[in-house]
Amino acid sequence: MSSSGFGFASGNLAKLLALPKYLLSIVFSWFVPRNRALWVFGSGAGVAEGALPLARELRAEDPEARIVWLVSGETEAAAAAAEGFEAIERTGWRGFWTTLRAGTVVVTHGLGDANRFGVVGARVIQLWHGAPLKRLHLDSAVTTQVQGPAPVRALLKRMYLAGSREVDLFVAGSPTSADRLRSAFRVAPGKVRVLGDPRDDLLAQHAADPEAAARVRAELVDLLGEAGATIPEGAPIALYAPTWRDGEPDPAIPDAAEAQEIRAALEAAGAHLVIRSHPLGAGAYDSLAGPNTHFLGADIVRDITPLLAGFDAVITDYSSIAVDFSLLGRPIVWFAPDLGHYSATRGLYEPLAVTAGGRIDTDWASAMEQLAAVLRPGAPRRAAIADARTLAGRFHAHPEGGAARRVLAEIRRLSLPASELVPDNAVFFESFYGRQISCNPLALDREIAARFPEAPRFWSVTSELQEVPEGAIAVLEGGRDWFAARSRARLLIVNDWLRRGFRRRKGQVVLQTWHGTMLKHLALGRPNVGLRTRLAIRRESRRWSLMLSQNPHSTAQFRESYAFSGEILELGYPRDDRLAQSLAGGTRNPVQVLAARQALGVPLGARVLAYAPTWRDGGITLVDELDVARLSEELGEDWCIVVRGHTRTHAFGSYRGGAGRVIDASRHPDVNDVILAADLLVTDYSSVMFDASVARVPLAFFVPDLPAYRDRERGFTFDFERAAPGPLLTERSQVVGSARELAEHGEAAAWLVEHRDAAESWRATFNPHDDGRAAERVVDALVARGDLGWATSAEAAPAEPIRD
Predict the structure, then answer these.
(1) Which of 271, 297, 334, 739 could form a disulfide with 236 if both were Cys (CB 3.0 to 4.6 A apart)?
(2) Where would I find the beta strands (DSSP E) of 72-153?
(3) What value does the mean pLDDT of the chain take?
């Protein structure tokens, strides 16, 4: 077996040894101005990949732009010259100087595609070379392999992070790919945009034009013919393209017996197999040589993507070629002989069976059997085509092509001033750092949109999949538009910290609505708060112009916990307006309850126990003290468990179990659906208890760690044990008993009757303003203050209350 001459360990050592050059180049960049008309392109695949169609698009749109392709060797220089680009050796002095002077640098593999020492300060565009199936960059332990003590590895990781920060725009083909790139490179959501993969633009044309695909087929046959291959007209051609194995030997290289079986299978099927090892990890497949097997390595064709339409099927393991090929809707055979080892070392973003749609072959005999089956008409072929189309649907948000045009337009937007991106008097909304479109900001957005439909409204989001309210504009957190919206908006309505260096400009108003009445201490009220944290808290609260409070208790706590001396609007919580409006005669409207359950996917007729635990300081797992899977089993089929995890635990997984009777509603857009759907709501210390009391939902508290949480972790702002509007439970069996008693006796359940007075006192203390009109009052106050630039008191008559 052969293996690549490159491995992460050796490459990382070279990075560390080059650290003095990196530092010196930073100093150079301070004194050398950049030329916005100079564009530098480079790719680990040569004059190819997504960089090539983007350079062609740039030349078509701006003939005056100076396009330089940084090359490695005469072959690449000739290819660049054939395209009409200026070619410069990337590793020499001219490569460094050109990169240092360039306004824009475009790469497809890494900063080393250009001259890595000259990229500091440039506008860097990363067109990643394929959809991420295997774990990339910092998501895989193999990436930062290096021999040496822990400090060396820590330094290397910092260098990787510094490299990521140099990139202004990562381009992704789909939201799925975008999320993986954000994770791999540890960048803000707004640094990654779903614009389509320029390297697939030509392939999209081939998929839509059978005549163009036929021309590619003829080109492929001619190319193979030049190498001595004879392919009869109409004979199926399959491509075998294994991925690189991080310097390890290729486990799929067949022995002599397997090679003979492969040749025999191809001859029996009348098919031809084109073998293309990864450019970084060429394997010794010479034993496969025969009349039906052909070799098409990177030495012959640097970029295989433009030729994919010439193949009838693809065999691969973890290569992103499969994702490209799926655009054609043709069969893919997944052949991964080292699946277990590869998953445990390099790692995959999802089980390969999910990507493949089911079947994965682990030996050549079964792979060739599957290939023969998908090349002829029949059920296996139809299934393989359906799987390919499903794969394309997941990873190609723009199957129509045109990615190069969109990417170029986005690059130009990076240079636009904020005033051209965001109009005057805009409103910026953010809820839970952009993870949700919810809470008080959402309720206020609805009120503002109803009364002032002309108001420019921007919503902070962390994913393209989030749906913002009608008429609003989504801006990805940490991106150019996001920063512009924050800096230009007249009014910012948020429910958590602003972060990322925000500074409130003159005339700008920040309404901090917060996200719940506090049972537990927060900010300065927390135990053992260090000096650095205290300074950060005070710096944050100075960013706020005014705060929103649900009740007198919250008002006092905000003053103390955030040292906030500004105006506090104690007007109730807009997010609870819907809950208050759902009541009729003291009970919840059954129509709204049914609608909430349908929105959550609760089975018809099931009783609902909602579980909403809060997060734990320093926690790195889901909070599931109740063990919802076991709870579901013990409650039985009559009950459905709806779990609402805290936003700060979303990254730790999801709640499962109960044979489908556990519904994870952690990312559901509206927590009010969870509250309205519940027959019984169980929490620990979450502020959802103050919202559920508005809707008069029976509350129980599962608090097995009460002493530790009260005395050591957070502590309480009042005597929770005395005031709780429901029982404090420490055993799951007690929760089961309370639920069953409620199901049998309803409002006459003994524990509910026992806590009835406490619940009434609770509502009087914590929900005095939650009457269904809080949003209206808050917007009235903003108008009166002059905080809505396009509204005056005379024209801002309250709209009719919004009723769901």
Answers:
(1) 271
(2) 86-89, 102-107, 123-127
(3) 91
3-state class (DSSP) for residue 66: strand
Give, in order, the Cα–Cα distances in Å from 671 to each of 584, 597, 600, 611, 681. 20, 12, 10, 12, 12
Burial class (CB in 10 A: 0-12, 13-18, 19+), 350: exposed
Residue type, 572: G
Per-residue pLDDT at 56:
98
Q: Tell me the per-residue pLDDT of 43-70, one tens digit each, with 9 for 90 and over.
A: 999 999 999 999 999 999 999 999 999 9
Q: How many CB atoms lie within 10 A of CB 362?
A: 16
| 640, 608 contact by CB (below 8 A) | yes
What is the 8-class DSSP label of residue 49?
Answer: T
User: Can you tell me which residue has the tokens 């990076």?
Assistant: 414
Lowest mean pLDDT of 306-320, 554-568, 712-726, name the range: 712-726
Question: Around Cβ 567, how many Cβ atoms within 10 Å?
Answer: 12
Reduce the DSSP state of residue 149 to 3 states and report it: coil
Q: Apex CA 436: angle with CA 432 and CA 437, to 5°?
A: 115
Residues in CB range of 389: below 8 A, 6 or more apart: 326, 329
Tokens of residue 95, six digits: 């490569």
CA angle 318, 321, 322 (to 5 degrees): 70
Q: Could you tell me which residues come within 8 angstroms of residue 319 by beta carbon, excluding any fewer than 6 positions away?
A: 130, 133, 241, 242, 243, 278
464-488 exposure pattern, b = at least 16 Cβ within 10 A, e = fewer: bebebeeebebbbbbbbbbbbbbbb
Kindly tell me if the per-residue pLDDT of 3 is higher than 50. no
Tell me the CB-side half-sphere exposure of residue 73, using CA atoms within 13 A.
8
Rounded distance between C-alpha atoms, residue 608 and residue 639, angstroms: 6
**What are residue 106's phi and psi, to 5 degrees?**
-115, 125
Structural element, H or E, at residue 410: helix 403-413
List, as own/partner pairs, every contact residues 742-747 make where C-beta atoms lie below 8 angstroms and the sequence separation is at least 24, other chains included. 742/679, 742/680, 742/698, 743/607, 743/638, 743/679
Give the type of residue at 110. Answer: G
* CB 716 within 8 Å of CB 710: yes
**CA distance linking residue 524 with residue 533, whole number of Å:** 8
